[in-house]
Amino acid sequence: MQRDICRILSNHKVTGNIYKMVIESRIISKKALPGQFIHIKPGDGYDPLLRRPISICDLDADNSQVTLLYRVCGKGTRLFTHTKTGDFLDVLGPLGNGFPIFHSKRVAIIGGGIGIAPLLYLSKELIEAEVYLGFRDETYMIEDFMKYSDNISIYTEDGSKGNKGYPIEALERNIRSYDVVYACGPKIMLRAVKNLCEENHIECYISMEERMGCGIGACLVCACESSSNEEYKKVCTDGPVFNSKEVNLDD
Ligand SMILES: Cc1cc2nc3c(=O)[nH]c(=O)nc-3n(C[C@H](O)[C@H](O)[C@H](O)COP(=O)(O)OP(=O)(O)OC[C@H]3O[C@@H](n4cnc5c(N)ncnc54)[C@H](O)[C@@H]3O)c2cc1C
Ligand code: FES
What we know:
The protein is α/β, with parallel strands linked by helices. The chain has helices at residues 26-31, 75-81, 117-126, 142-148, 167-174, 187-199, and strands at residues 2-15, 18-24, 37-40, 52-55, 58-60, 65-71, 88-95, 107-112, 130-135, 152-156, 163-164, 180-184, 203-207, 223-225, 232-234, 241-243. The strands form three sheets. The chain has a seven-stranded antiparallel β-sheet with strand order 4-3-7-1-2-6-5. A hairpin with a 6-residue loop joins β14 (223-225) and β15 (232-234). α3 (117-126) packs parallel to α4 (142-148). The model has no long low-confidence stretch (mean pLDDT 95).
């Protein structure tokens, strides 16, 4: 883990409360794996005090560029929107473990909402993944995913773009075609993917979201329940990516 002061190369609204930021970091762009995250100091002062975790969405190692996709939902992410091209961002990373990459297996990726963020870099690394993406209404980053996969299914809850419904419905129909499924998104979706994969004996990796403090394994703020019910896992250092069998997603 390293601290880096990164120059912001661009930061703009994609749609609604979704923003895309590109930062310059030689260290992160050379080292980060799909599924890893960075821990960003939201402003110059002490409010908010804690850094905010944001996934690596894409990388361009040749040009030292790291792409982030973020949804504005509170003080920290709102402060991100105030930063402009040429400003600097105080970043720790890359942090966490990342998704295991299997090139010789049949793989599916499923993402919901802002949970699609770490899946773009993953689909780039997997090359031939089939991708299922779900959104409430507005879709985003579809063209970016199309650069890395020829097989993308889009779902919106209201049917305004792509198919009406949820991507899990399509994954369920095709589940027997895959050896491995990767997922990131709302907990309700992760739980459904975990259950579907485990019932069909398909290997499944999920990226978990918990509130974070330190981001480096020292504070336990990010603890989540392990499937053994006897111990907790730290999302920041044991994850954020877990084999679905390792974690308990029941309420
Ligand atoms: C490993 C990891 C990777 C992430 N990657 C991304 C990403 O790529 N893009 C992105 O937009 N967001 C991502 N997040 C979520 C992001 O970190 C939070 O949305 C952000 O920290 C909220 O900060 P805030 O100050 O804007 O909101 P706050 O004011 O802190 O909170 C606003 C609301 O969001 C809820 N909230 C805050 N943090 C979380 C969380 N971690 N999980 C669930 N609910 C939360 C709060 O309970 C509150 O209701 C990631 C989280 C983790 C743990
Ligand atoms: S955020 Fe501190 S231990 Fe995970």
